[in-house]
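A quick word before the example. In earlier lectures we treated sequence and structure as two separate objects. From today on, think of them as two lines of the same record. Here is Protein zyg-11 homolog written that way.
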Amino acid sequence: MDGEGPQTLCDLCLAQELADQLLQMMATKGMLNDVTVGIFRNSEKLRLRSASIRYCKVSAKAFRLALCPHRLLELDASWVPGGLTGADVILGLASNPDCRASLQMLALNGLSLNLGSPEKDGGVCVGFSSLEGLKTLHLVNTDLTDDILEDICSLPRLETLDISCSSVSELNALLKCKNTLRSLIAHRLYRLDTSPVRLLFIFAQLHALRHLDFSNNHFANDDSESRVDGDETVRQLLEAGPQILPSLLSLDISGRKTINDSALRGFVESRSGLVFLGLLATGLSSSPVLSSHENLKVTGEANEKQLWEALRRYRERECFVKEALIHLYHLTTDTDKPQPDMLKLVVEAMQSHPESPHVHLLATACVFNLTTRDLAEVMPVRLMSATVTQLLHAMETFPNIQQVQSNCLMALCNDYLLQNVPFDRYLAAMLVIKWLSNHEEPTLQRIAVAVISVLVAKISIEETALLSNDMSFMKQLLTVVQQKAMLGVVDPTLKFALSALWNLTDETPTAARNFIECQGLELYKEVLESYYSETTIQQKVLGLLNNIAEVEELQSDLMDEDLLEHILSLLQDSQMVVGVRYFAGGILAQLASRAEAWTLDHALRRTVLEQLHESITTWPHLEQEMVSYRSFRPFCSLLQTCQPSGVQLWAVWAIHLVCRQNASYYIHMLTKEGLTELLKALDTHPDTHSDVKRVSQSIVLMVQEQQTPCEVANSQTEPGKS
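And the structure line, produced from the sequence above:
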């Protein structure tokens, strides 16, 4: 064994695959920039082979210093913002002799090439032809010129070329690589000025060609000679027979609207080896000839299989994404079949076009169709998480597009999704309340308030506090309650708003204080009286008043004799459901527990304490869940041995209720927060009322039943004693 010990990880060369994955991860998560890309400058310790800086803001200097020293096989520098040009990339790569020979794939989509005619710089050619190992080149949406294309086509190993949406005017240069070019992608060449006869002649000379994409943007409303000539070229190609491009296995003519069915039929029947046909937005995807070729993959709108293929292949093409989504929406309106693969493609379409309102309008509608009812429950959780993240992005990016907002709200209003899928619930709550503040359409208002009520219950106490700092959040929910109360209606919107306010103030003193400052207390007093016979409304109102009563510095705001006498009457009413009496008792127990803070008549406090004890002893056991707690902290002061029995009895009854209904969760909470010791102290104290002792003992027994034998033994043995 080496006496100096093993080498540290820093001394070892990071595996090439891991270096590639690290760069990819940094790029995907938006962490890659001029500073962070610097870790790849040491090409001995971090050896890159496949590098992607797609969409990352990396300058020409940082690119040259960090990536060009590597012996790269693949580089994707598409859509890099901040001024990096194709010339910068080529000059940098050409400066490394190893890279000039090794690089096989280069993608510069969306960049300004900024290249003149290829020149010599100290004996080094700085055009694309200097990268003599290139086999695949993607130049979508670039200022590609005819001269640069001439240079590109002189590459000796060029097999795949994508010049879609570029500004080339003629394709004669392709004849220079006619023996090597296997795949030509030439979607929407809007400046092409070549006759159909000449184009067909050029295509016919590409002897090695297996895949030809000569599709067009059908949304462009383009009646130019270029489009007309392109359509005519496709027609002639289809009718020319297999002697033209005999090796062709794949043809994409999506968006070419003037092609007839007979030409398509003749082409398909004469090409037995055909594996793919692009027919989206041609009107031909329902052609009978396709049904007899089961293994032929087709992009079109005739069925979901064709649409899936379209979304998969055309992810970067907004025109085709929109077309596919339009038809997908109609095909999935009443679907009851889970389609996770389709949903994944819809989400990827949104990710690929983050600023496109048209894509998001259609995609969010499709998301709703694909996840509505029970469909979300059978989708992979990670996929649903990504889906919700994209919905929130849509809400944030397009706040003024009503239909996008509506689609997102309807998709979010899914109980499984809101309860079980990981996503940024705080952001979601802020976006939904922002929408609610500007809209009052009844159906969507109900959906928005329902979503908020669940979100507020699921976020952390820290996030709840952040929400409560925004007074507009509280005011908007109170406005909804006030609107409904003025009409005297009992509907889901009112109930959801009351639930949201209840959850918002739970163990959040700031929110409780803001509630009072927004005149919420006055409103709730009115609701308590006017909705006396509506027990569900009463419980939600009293639940929030419980939250206020738990905050010592706010208890004085509840010291209103009329209010407390009304609450006391609810506690005493034997005809009232236990839920209402329970929450009424909680308010009174908290306020009566601090004799020094009681500012009303002391006779009222004595009555409260007596009625608390008397009423609680008559309450039946409840089977259905009535309340949930984030913690038992508000109970600690109520369980002190010095407290009146009515206060203690309400606290132990409440703890016993939730522990019996969800033992594993609440008994762990009891033990963690130290309440088991308080209960034991009550049980052993000579002045504790027998009713309180009985319930306390029952809770302690439940705790012991949940514990392991070792935990029980440890809890019964004092430290240092046997």
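Notice the following. Confidence is low (pLDDT under 50) at residues 7-12, 712-722. We will return to this example when we discuss secondary structure assignment.
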